[in-house]
Amino acid sequence: MSDNVPSRFSGSAVDLSALAAQQQQQQNAAAQQAGGQTPPAAPAGAGAPGVVALDVTDATVQTEVLERSLNTLVVVVFWADQAPESVQTRDLLQRLAHADGGSWTLAKADVQYNQQLAAALQLQSLPAVVAVAGGRPVDLVQGPQTEQGLRQWIAKLAQAAGVDVPQQIDPELAAAEDHMVEGNLDAAEIAFDKYLKNNPGSLEAESGLAQVRMLRRAGALPQDAVGIADADPDDIDAALAAADLQMLSGQADEAYDRLIKQVAKLAGDDRERVRKRLVELFSIAGPDDPNVTKARRKLSSVLF
Q1: How far apart are CA 128 and CA 120, in angstroms?
Q2: Which of 70, 204, 229, 269 lies at a CB distance of 3.0 to 4.6 Å from 238, suitable for a disulfide?
Q3: Are 284 and 210 a contacting pair, CB within 8 Å?
Q4: Parallel, antiparallel or unpaired: strands 128-133 and 136-142
């Protein structure tokens, strides 16, 4: 499982309004057979936001999903008792929905009672999670996902839909960060490493571990590390130390450029050693940092 949730769905590919209309026709026909009367329309506010989680069926997709999504983000999770991982995903999303205080709505769809909806969305595996906003599906992910990955996915879609979702801080990550702030680097490293093993690919944990390692090295850095490295450009250890000092001094661009120049002229194990350190420094800033993006392009140009 990855924290980077892969999207496999284009919202423009599916229009659920036809399914909703079909369900309404079936309800009208059933009502006429029973008593000759058309069922009343859904009461005003039936699709209003504020509900944390609910169960849906093919018959209620119009009011509980499409209409509700006009006012808030609706996340539909498809599950089945025969697919234990889908049940786990359903329960995880319900916990996240409660933690976010109803800022978005979770719709739980047992595939046994949502076969037409599942077919309309062309689902291929369980668990499957569909985001609906503005009356139409906007994204779909299938297969097991991590908690962190789902949090990021929902936050991204909620932001696009104009929904304010509070950012939840994972208590294990928060504890690890507290250890680091307090200077207890041993405890911080253990906590980050444990979290990363349980949540492979977590960018926060990778960044935390990288910071802990750099703080460990910081205690042995000479104050004139940059000058020492500049005086002997071929000294790899000096270059690594200078890059650390520049990172700690807020000179990330200079640190990246220094190590990229080393990668460009080195080979074999020495080159890989510097490259790994550079990637570690990238993880401290995070993949969205524009300096990291620019430095990665430079690194690629010297590697390939």
Answers
A1: 13
A2: 229
A3: yes
A4: antiparallel
Within-domain flag for 58: yes
Q: Is residue 245 part of a domain?
A: yes
- The string over 114-148, giving b where at least 16 C-beta atoms fall within 10 Å of a residue's C-beta and e elsewhere, is bebbbebbebeebbbbbbbbebebbbbbbbbbbbb
Strands (E), the chain: 53-56, 74-79, 105-110, 128-133, 136-142
Residue that terminates a domain, selected from 112, 128, 160: 160
Considering the domain architecture, whether residues 17 and 123 belong to the same structural domain is answered as: yes
Please check whether residue 120 lies inside any domain of the structure. yes
Range of the domain at 254: 171-303
Three-class secondary structure assignment of 141-177? EECCCCHHHHHHHHHHHHHHCCCCCCCCCCHHHHHHH
Number of domains in the chain: 2
Q: Which two tokens stand for residue 118?
A: 């599942």
Per-residue tens of pLDDT for the chain, all 304 residues = 444 444 444 433 445 555 555 555 555 555 555 555 444 443 333 444 457 899 999 889 888 998 999 888 999 999 999 999 999 999 999 989 988 888 899 999 999 888 888 888 888 889 999 999 988 888 999 888 888 889 889 988 888 877 665 556 678 888 998 888 888 999 999 999 999 998 888 888 999 999 999 999 988 899 899 999 999 999 999 999 999 999 888 889 999 999 999 999 999 999 999 999 999 999 988 887 888 999 999 999 998 8
Alpha carbons 49 and 74: distance in angstroms, whole number: 9
Where a domain ends, among 100, 131, 160? 160
Residue 128 pairs in a beta bridge with 78, 142
